[in-house]
Amino acid sequence: MVNILKNEYLVPAAVKIDRILKLVVEHKGSLRLIDISRELGISKSSCSLLLRTLEQLNWLIKDNQDEYKLGPVLGHIGHHYFKDLEIIDLFNGEAKKSLEIIDEHIQLGILQENQVMYLAKIKGSSTIDLVTHPGSLYPSHSTSVGKVQLIDKSYDELEKLFPNGLQSVTPHTITNLDELFKNLQNAKIHGYIEEHQESAIGFHCVACPIYNADGKIIAGVSTAMITEKWERKHEIAREEILKLSRRISYLNGYEIKKIE
After folding, report:
1. Topology of domain 85-259, CATH
2. Whole-angstrom Cα distance, residue 83 to residue 89?
3. CA dihedral defined by 82, 85, 90, 96, rounded to 10 degrees?
4. Architecture of the domain made up of 12-77
5. Which terminus in the chain has less CB density within 10 A, N or C?
6. pLDDT, tens digit, 9 for 90 and up, residues 171-213
């Protein structure tokens, strides 16, 4: 992820805690003290003290294998964070209407630096699903709901957002910045973006941006389906996700004349 922590007034211990928590999330609770110390370049004694503090505060818990996982306090904070996001309520209300038409899983996501975080999902009747539960993170350049939120970025902004290049998630993922920029510019013209097996083999997605009252992209909505269904339903899916993004944008204060 992009390192935006360059302020000289940041508290070093707080920055280390931030890095520890993100590392635990990234590795899905499979790291021990020695692993965290080595991965982050923090001395074992300093790391031990920070981890004990986080345990005492219930931010982290240590299992029987001495591996650290997120604790109940963070779950409580996360619950209230999502609860307070009005856009989730708008999504849950409006996406049900689209679900009746396309009967495929529909997702809401927001950008978190160069990743997309999924906020909500409503499910269709399909038993086949992507692992995109609320709170999960995925490389934004490999997902339709992530890429559609990059369409207003300049080439220079994309370079800064992806300083280490574009990670390959599948053999179909765009890993060339020039190609990604062209892909985004095309999506900006049409108002939607499609993604074909770039984040998961066998899946195809279409996404549209959600705007706020100032005309800024604040989130994205998408639907995903397997190849067989995509061949039959991609046109109606694209049309319905466009309508869904427009409804949510309008309810979020975006002028309807701009999105019709």
Report:
1. Beta-Lactamase (3.30.450)
2. 8
3. -10
4. Orthogonal Bundle (1.10)
5. C
6. 999 999 999 999 999 999 999 999 999 999 999 999 999 998 8
